[in-house]
User: What shape does this take?
Amino acid sequence: MPTRRSSCPPCRRCTAASTSSQVHYRRYDRSLLSATIEASGLKLVEMHSLDVVGVLPDFLMYRLLNVPTLDAGSSKVYDSLTVPVSRFIQNRVDRPALGKNLLAVARRPQV
Assistant: This one.
């Protein structure tokens, strides 16, 4: 049975509106993503947060400092420092309550 995995940024309060024009076309919280999956006829199998540590830099850069985009240097720093720490935490905390992204796994119902 085909399984569809989707990851999206859930924390609208953490990121600025300007980031939606850069890469992400939609922002979902848990309830909206769950409702969208079910409305499309799929059955939600699981949903959990990813990138626990990424919430803080996003909040600081996009909300507090109102930075419209990150340059290549900032992205490199983020990737080299934040991603490994977030991955380390993610491997030890089964389902963190908060994260920069949501991972949803859904299946088509059997006919």
User: Anything to note?
Assistant: The first helix runs from residue 30 to 39.
